[in-house]
Amino acid sequence: MTNCKPLATPMTQNEKLTKDDNRERANETTFRSLLGSLIYLTNTKPDIVHTMSIVSRYMSQPSKAYFTAAKRILHYIKETKSYGIFYKSEEASNLISYIDSYWTESIDDKKSTSGYAFFLGIKIISWSSRKQKTMALSSVGAEYIATTSAVY
Length: 152
Hints:
- Helix content is 33%, strand content 16%.
- By secondary structure, it is an alpha+beta fold.
- Strands 1-2-3 form a 3-stranded antiparallel β-sheet.
């Protein structure tokens, strides 16, 4: 992947990965090894956390579609090598939060995905992107669940 084409986004827009896509299965050991390395990388590259949460949902029986999505993250990393987190002291630090959800993202169980990021000044101190535990009946409900999960 050293000479791969750099890409500006870690995942294609509106890509839907499903559990039963009836595609050829990928090598589980190789797929898990790649995801383990990428999960380790999320400590300094929070821009891939959401994509990683989607790609790692079906690690027990990954299809070629999931493996292709994981390799796309490597293409994105090549484009964004200089991106990352660097902390240094700062005098004025306000707590800022961003919370959002994506309603009915999962085709398999119709659950939405929540995400949040908390900043102290310009430094990110906490973030999360995960599937909601309950099914929301509307986008407003998904936003309410996302806000509640970020607070706790």
